[in-house]
Amino acid sequence: MPNKLREDSNKATMKEMKEEYLRMLEESFQNTAEIKKGDVVEAPIVSIGDQYLILNLGGKFDAYAEIGEFSDSKGDLPYRVGDNLKGYVVDQNENGYVIAKSLTRQYVDKQSILDAFEKKIPVQGKVNSPTKGGFNVDILGARAFCPISQISLHPVEDTAQFIGKNLDFLVIECSENCRRLVVSHRQLEEMKEKELKEEALAKLKVGDVIKGKVLRMTNFGAFIDLGGIEGLMHVSEISWQHVVKPQDELKKGQDIEVQILDIKGDKIALSRKALIENPFLQALNELHEGDTINCRILRLHSFGAFAELKPGVEGLIPISEMSRNRNISHPREIVKEGDWVAVQILRIDEDTRKISLSLKALEEDPWDKIDEIIELDNPFEGIVESSTNFGVFVTITDGVTGLLPRSRVRKNDSFKTGDPVNLKVTAIDKDNHRITLDYTDRTPEELFEEQNRSANYNQRESRNENPRSGNQRRGSRNRNDEEWRKYANQKVNSAADNPFKDL
Fold first, then answer.
1. What confidence score (pLDDT) does residue 499 get?
2. 3-state secondary structure of 22
3. What pLDDT does 339 receive?
4. Main-chain phi, psi angles of 283, to 5 degrees
């Protein structure tokens, strides 16, 4: 290439570079010109000196910040060159913009206080003295009032702990002449706490296993500090064993490893139990249906008693399986918490992880010796269980119930639960565990009337079963059988341990 052409090409390139530089410089001037006092800025640190941090705002002037203001409580600076620093623009001078965490007396005038109020810029203040309902605070050379509710996130028990302290405040009320100022330190703490929560929450997901610290405990669970955010571990998630109170298993300040079960908004559900092998799975190899095992009664409910078979493995003794020989209304009539009892395992449901137990399965069945217990036509004194519109149920002895059919009940007789009554047994059905009762002093007239009623009933049933009739019924039942069917159905509905449930 000729020298002349090469020289012209270099001049053109230099001109383009100069124009691009001037354009970028003009843009940076424009960007810088938009920065005003009170603005929040975030810029990278380009150098760290003995006293100041130098920031690059991308304009004509750099910015600087005092190292001491951005150091932690130990005096250490948690920033390095290249890190972004966030703060408020509090002043501008020949050296550039001044970046700070809050307004200080050094950079203040009346307009600064108004700016702090309108733009919610933190300001430094010194708590001077207590006053009615709060504190007198020196804010940038002006007197301000901080209500006691606005000095801390937590309830204040000792006001003396704040006197003489330098704190950052938000101006929450300001008159036009700045003569009435109300400030809050609490709102700043809430803002910081919210930022920490959001940062911590963004790092968490369901299924994570993390370390935390026990903050406080209630009857329903324990609150765990996860580093800027709290999670709740329900009392049922502390251990596979039944836990009555979290204090029985945990201590305040205890370090603990937990798994995140769920996250809804800022609510986090935690579990320690999820990190422990389920003892039920191990127990499947050791427990079998039909086994007899000693267990400890843990707690009682109206429907039954929970018993501990092995640490962390529970079973339920339904109230219907409490006793073969007694009608009970609550498990406390048979057992109490802490009792050791022998039970038989009825069912083990692997899908629901539930185990059903029985006390009465180990008791002797009185029907095995019914001939020794009851004699036909011999009078006995029983106790009325219940009176229904189809008969009266009477306890003959523990575990044995008979029926006085409604057809045999005298019109003027009234039976109340718990009343003693003198009757006799007229029929025993061993296969179906059914006993029919009657009065001991029935007159011939009553017997004749009952026979007629029974005969009429059987005739009606026979007609209903006649193939020629249009209303044929399946099967044949006499009146006595009908009474027993009603008896069985009633008992099924009222008690699961009904001896007539298979009718």
1. 36
2. helix
3. 92
4. -65, -25
The fourth-level CATH superfamily of domain 279-362 is: Nucleic acid-binding proteins (2.40.50.140)
Where do runs of H (alpha helix) occur along 225-307?
A: 279-283
Question: Helices in 365-443 by DSSP H: which ranges?
Answer: 370-373
CB 486 within 8 A of CB 391: yes
Of 53, 27, 30, 26, residue with least CA distance to 42: 53
- Give residue 184's pLDDT: 94
**How far is Cα 386 from Cα 400, in angstroms, rounded to an integer?**
14
Tens digits of residue pLDDT in 447-498 = 777 667 666 655 665 665 555 444 444 444 455 555 556 555 554 444 444 4
498: three-class secondary structure by DSSP: coil
Question: Which CATH code fits 20-100?
Answer: 2.40.50.140
Q: Which CATH class is domain 367-494?
A: mainly beta
Phi/psi at 312 (5° precision): 85, 0
Residue-level length of the chain: 503
Tokens standing for residue 267: 């609510």
CATH of segment(s) 123-192: 2.40.50.140
For the chain, domain boundaries: 20-100, 123-192, 207-275, 279-362, 367-494
Superfamily classification of domain 207-275: Nucleic acid-binding proteins (2.40.50.140)
The answer to whether the beta carbons of residues 139 and 102 sit under 8 Å apart is no
Q: What is the pLDDT of residues 34-61, one digit of tens each?
A: 677 767 788 888 888 888 888 887 765 6
Indicate left, alpha or beta for 203 from its phi (over 0: left) and psi (-120 to 50: alpha): alpha
| SS3 label, residue 125 | strand
Do 367-494 and 20-100 have the same topology in CATH? yes
pTM: 0.42
Distance CA 288, CA 52 (A): 75
